[in-house]
Design goal:
With 229 residues, the chain is mostly helical. 53% of the residues lie in helices and 0% in strands.
Length: 229
């Protein structure tokens, strides 16, 4: 089977261009409506991932924003990955959960990535430490680690998987590359994502980052790319 060519690491400017191309595609609105089940009648059943940020009231609701809950682990499963059971139990009942809670407490809530300070995302930040802590667990890896943190801080931290990486490339580190892309031209891309959310008729609880993720994921997937693992 032919594999899609992997993009070289993308600069923030190139990343902004690629994201802009996906989110201005005429199909993006229909893709978002289809994903979230907001299409015109007869509506297609929404993708399970449409429940990712909503299940149980959201992972960043104030009373549980700094703790991993069982609902968070189920929410991650809606994005087609599963936290290994031993790790899940440690997150819910063990020392791993305690260590992660301490880091989550230091990660801002209620702030969009575009409005965040570089220090909130840089190597060595609490968010970066939390990602490394999760990624280092047995059979977790970078995709699952990112999805767990995106559930807990949906406005600040992105869902980033192999399909999105295949479509956008992978600036290193990705968070800082995306942060710079969202802030280019006085935040033009960020405003574009918010406008796309409004046109698609999605609630404000769908973050700009998720609008970007879903638009790219749906569009790239529809093209039938065989993305490298």
């Amino acid at each position: 089977m032919r594999r899609a060519k992997t993009h070289a690491p993308a600069s923030p400017h190139l990343l902004a261009e690629r994201l802009g191309a996906w989110t201005t595609d005429p199909r993006a609105v229909a893709d978002l409506r289809r994903y979230y089940g907001a299409a015109l009648v007869p509506a297609a059943a929404p993708f399970t991932g449409s429940r990712f940020e909503f299940l149980g009231g959201g992972g960043d609701r104030p009373e549980y924003a700094d703790r991993i809950m069982a609902e968070d682990l189920i929410a991650v499963q809606t994005l087609s990955v599963t936290v290994p059971v031993p790790v899940a139990l440690e997150l819910l009942e063990g020392g791993l959960g305690t260590r992660l809670a301490s880091l989550l407490h230091a990660i801002p809530t209620g702030i969009d990535m575009a409005d965040a300070d570089v220090s909130d995302l840089a190597p060595g930040s609490p968010a970066d430490q939390a990602w490394n802590l999760l990624e280092s667990q047995h059979d977790v890896g970078w995709v699952i680690a990112g999805k767990v943190l995106a559930r807990k801080r949906p406005q600040l931290l992105p869902v980033y998987d192999r399909v999105v990486r295949c479509a956008l490339g992978h600036p290193r580190p990705f968070w800082l590359g995306l942060h710079a892309a969202l802030r280019e031209d006085d935040g033009a891309l960020h405003r574009q994502l918010l406008e796309l959310r409004q046109i698609a008729g999605l609630p404000d609880t769908v973050s700009a980052l998720r609008v970007a993720d879903v638009a790219v994921w749906m569009g790239h997937r529809a093209q039938g790319h065989d993305c490298p693992r």
